[in-house]
Design brief:
The protein has 13 helices and no strands. By secondary structure, the chain is mostly helical. It is globular and about 60 Å long.
Length: about 400
């Protein structure tokens, strides 16, 4: 039997973070990088990976120093009032990301399998699934992703291997990009977008109450980051080598288009694109569910001012928790539908996220590393004072 202690293993952390990072980035990032040019797009991706590695180190520094909860850690340096404000910002970003991911997943499903008029129903069903997963808790979701991992990775890896023979390496050049273009501006724009693909790593600091061995959890997060980075580089090079820079830049979901073109020996699957879209259904659903879960959890902590730990809750607490999930899910549905009906609002939200949201997510833990006390150093000082 499975345990039910609200604790997850290092392997489950790796699966959770990998699912959250891989889905949207592999679907959208290659076309966005191709718009910058062949070489510039590749260097932008590598720079974004480097920035994400530094960000992971900052997050892990906060993660291992947090005594019981990230809220407690921040309050030691920033005070309780500012910490609540920060948590409200985290909650707002999580809700916006949840709405964006749910909108993207619904559009992919409608374009690949359904008709556009089915969007409201598809969005509702996806959010109901996310709601169910959020109420079930972090541990239940971690088990599901752990079981699904190899079921999704093996077919995807097999399909990509079949595509390698079609890659034309000459399409990767020139590495200096297009002549006469704004190389520096395109490079940093692509690097910033590539870095944003790894921002689900932010959820690592909120896993503090759910892990026992922080060192193993840090190694798991690093493994998920490296695996996702390697997969993104491989997918981008394969797509660039097959489509070319111009065609790739015009493709909305290039990876799904590519996998739909692959012919399996025997030709026993007629709609392979419909089969492979399941990979992005589960990865985008994972991001939707994760953002919803943390959006509710962080919002409740900001409202109540205290951290919750453990899975043993009274019936009243469970009812209150469900109400929070239902209310936030309703807000997410409204925002996601607004993004679909008025695409300009989604573009404005993305622009605000890139200009305000990302600096907030990066600077808060970076400053907190120096502002908030190191628990181990503080314990050593207290021991030295006692001995003195």
């Amino acid at each position: 039997m499975f345990s039910n202690n609200d604790q997850i293993s290092a392997r489950q952390i790796k699966r959770l973070l990998l699912f959250d990072m891989f889905g949207a980035s592999s679907l959208l990032l290659p076309a966005q990088l191709a718009k910058a040019g062949t070489g510039i797009g590749l260097w932008s991706l590598m720079a974004g990976i480097g920035l994400a590695g530094v960000y992971l180190w900052i997050l892990y520094s906060c993660f291992r120093r947090a005594p019981q909860d990230y809220m407690i850690y921040l309050s030691q340096g920033w005070g309780s009032f500012l910490t609540k404000i920060f948590f409200l910002c985290y909650a707002g970003i999580s809700v916006a990301v949840c709405a964006w991911a749910a909108n993207l997943l619904s559009e992919v499903m409608c374009e690949s399998l359904l008709e556009n008029r089915d969007f409201p129903i598809a969005l509702l069903l996806i959010l109901l699934l996310a709601l169910y997963g959020g109420i079930a808790g972090l541990e239940a979701r971690a088990r599901i992703y752990e079981l699904l991992f190899w079921v999704l990775v093996i077919p995807l890896a097999f399909m990509l291997l079949l595509c390698i023979r079609q890659v034309q390496v000459i399409q990767w050049f020139p590495l200096s990009g297009r002549a006469g273009s704004d190389g520096a501006g395109l490079f940093w724009r692509g690097a910033w977008m590539s870095f944003a693909s790894f921002l689900p790593l932010t959820f690592l600091v909120f896993l503090v109450p759910h892990v026992q061995n922080k060192k193993r959890a840090g190694k798991a997060a690093t493994a998920a980051f490296l695996f996702s980075a390697a997969a993104l580089v491989a997918i981008y090079l394969i797509l660039l080598g097959i489509f070319g820079q111009g065609a790739l830049a015009r493709e909305e979901y290039a990876i799904i288009t590519l996998l739909g073109m692959v012919k399996i020996p025997g030709d026993f699957v007629k709609r392979l694109d419909a089969v492979m879209v399941g990979v992005w259904f589960f990865t985008l659903y994972a991001l939707t569910g994760t953002a919803l879960y943390y959006g509710v959890t962080i919002l409740r902590k900001a409202a109540t001012g205290r951290a919750e730990k453990g899975n043993a809750k009274s019936r009243r607490q469970n009812r209150v928790q469900r109400r929070w999930f239902f209310a936030v899910t309703a807000v997410v549905y409204g925002v996601a539908y607004l993004f679909h009906v008025f695409p300009n609002t989604e573009r404005i939200a993305c622009r605000l996220f890139y200009t305000i949201g990302i600096p907030f997510l990066v600077l808060l833990p970076a400053i907190s590393v120096f502002l908030c006390p190191n628990r181990k150093i503080k314990q050593r000082r207290d021991e030295m004072q006692e001995h003195a």
